[in-house]
Design brief:
14 strands; disordered N terminus; 491 residues; 6-stranded parallel β-sheet; 40% helix; 6-stranded mixed β-sheet
Length: 491
């Protein structure tokens, strides 16, 4: 192999990687790799302090490569990186699906995209097009527009359209659909055991809508779908990525893997082997960096791809095709329209207020005295993370000074809240009560002792409403908590 060919091969191997990195400024090794061919980077919560800092960081990256793709996992709602320490200004998919106004969804996605573009982010790993058909799903839940196929499809298309109109590439996920799982692919390998009679009429419908709307990228799912490929998960499956997505669905944009360090891949194949198999299957970009975010990870993956080409395991033309698709997306983002002077919109709060579902047991009158909030808090999944605040306590404390909050992770939280409350009214905040028996038990205890308790459900409202007032926010974004607090207090 000639030196020129080798240099081209190494550059292509770097081009298909989408790594993360530590810190709020770009390390020297990352800037050097961009100079050597790296075309994408991913931003995570650890990289973000303020919009101004993100703008300075992306400018630093663009000084090395003008068309570099700067990606982020900014779904809005429960999954936010730009507002990781405060909670999102935008309700997530489930709230938008509850409103079911595609114009509103488009407007929310456009405003979110506008804010990303304003700080130099041009590639969003969103929206989630998964249909939440399994209510026990531990990782999708409120990240889905809902359980209805057509609703999810029309809102996925609206989200893609709105986001890309702001100059930010959409990455519709998680192909071929992560909704009908009871396992989190961050932790293990989920499996969807539905037949070819169901998949085309359910899971694939939102992805067809996303493709028709022009989604610039699609992210794969680390899930086993035996009806399509009994041996390998979608991320590593040629029948799923090449035959189905490229062939049958006619998709011609960028195919990106979900994070390769997730246990579904790293614990079964390893990230090097997994990356080679993903490229061979038809993926174009390898996402890594949520957990592994050092220079050695980039070097390991680059060398694994180069070695696979040299040994004949990965055709050189497949790697070259993947690299060219990455560059094509970079060219699109570099030329995409963006109006930085557009005034910020309050559409997030508008949407959050419209998404509230309220069930009063009797006529509700605004609460005017301080309350005792008890947050019944489940363990957050990795996609959401545990550093983003949620709930209604802070907003109620602002609106009703003297309000206090206790937090609990088991049924004993109810007794603690009753002791702390004294004469104050209780507001119990839950997240997916239907998935957590201890949470339902704690509510039972609270409502027996204090039937006037207000219940705020900030997850999927699957359990029957109860309490003197029940508010379903359809998500735990900061905007959702604020909307619930406003309703409780009549503000």
């Amino acid at each position: 192999m000639t030196t020129f060919a080798s240099d081209t091969l190494t550059r292509d191997a770097l081009t298909v990687l989408q790594p993360g990195f530590p810190g709020t400024t770009a390390p020297d090794w990352l800037l050097r790799r961009i100079g050597e061919g790296l075309a994408s980077v991913g931003l995570f919560g650890r990289n973000i302090a303020t919009p101004e800092q993100v703008a300075a960081l992306t400018a630093q990256l663009r000084a090395e490569r003008e068309d570099v793709l700067v990606a982020i996992d900014e779904e809005g709602g429960d999954v936010t990186r730009l507002e990781v320490r405060t909670g999102s200004s935008f309700p997530g998919n489930h709230a938008l699906g509850a409103v079911d106004d595609v114009d509103l969804t488009r407007e929310v996605a456009h405003e979110l995209g506008r804010r990303l573009a304003a700080c130099g982010v041009n590639f969003n790993w969103a929206p989630s097009a998964d249909i939440n058909s399994n209510a026990a799903n531990p990782v999708i839940g409120v990240r889905s527009f809902g359980a209805d196929t057509d609703l999810v499809a029309r809102h996925t298309a609206a989200y893609v359209t709105g986001l890309q109109a702001a100059g930010v590439a959409a990455c519709t996920k998680h192909f071929p659909g992560h909704g009908d799982t009871a396992v989190d692919s961050h932790e293990a390998m989920p499996r969807i055991d539905v037949g070819l009679d169901v998949l085309p009429e359910r899971e694939l419908v939102p992805f067809r809508a996303a493709i028709a709307a022009g989604s610039r990228a699609i992210m794969t799912a680390h899930i086993l779908v035996p009806a399509l490929d009994a041996a390998r998960p979608a991320t590593l499956s040629r029948p799923i990525l090449t035959d189905l997505l490229r062939g049958e669905l006619g998709y011609d944009g960028l195919i990106v893997t979900d994070g390769m360090e997730m246990q579904a891949i790293s614990a079964t194949y390893g990230i090097e082997r997994g990356s080679v198999l993903a490229l061979a299957a038809g993926a174009d970009a390898i996402c890594v960096g949520g957990g592994l975010n050092d220079e050695n990870t980039v070097r390991r993956l680059r060398d694994a791809l180069v070695t696979a080409v040299r040994t004949g395991e990965l055709p050189e033309e497949r790697l070259a095709d993947a690299a060219e698709r990455v560059r094509a997306l970079a060219r699109w983002t570099a030329g995409a329209a963006f109006a930085p002077d557009t005034e910020p919109s309050d559409v997030g709060m508008v949407a959050a207020r419209r998404a509230l579902s309220v069930t009063p047991a009797a006529g509700h009158t605004p609460v005017t005295e301080p309350v005792q909030v008890v947050a019944l808090s489940p363990v957050a999944n990795i996609a959401v993370g545990d550093e983003t605040p949620w709930g209604v306590g802070a907003d109620l404390a602002e609106l009703l000074p003297g309000t206090e909050t206790t937090t609990g992770t088991d049924a004993s939280a109810a007794e603690e809240a009753l002791k702390a409350a004294g004469e104050r009214r209780i507001v119990a905040v839950v997240r997916d009560e239907h998935r957590h028996p201890w949470m339902a038990q704690a509510l039972d205890t609270l409502l027996r002792a204090r039937p006037d308790t207000i219940v705020v459900e900030m997850g999927v409202p699957q359990s029957a409403p109860r309490g003197a007032l029940h508010i379903a926010t359809h998500g735990a974004a900061r905007a959702c908590g604020r909307a619930a607090a406003e309703y409780i207090t009549g503000r």
